Amino acid sequence: MQGVLRAVELMDDLNVGLLNMSELHAFILRVDPGSFLNFLILSHNILVVFAILFPDHFIPEVHVAMEKFLSQDSLALTEKYR
Question: Is the Cβ–Cβ distance between 3 and 17 less than 8 Å?
Answer without folding.
Answer: no
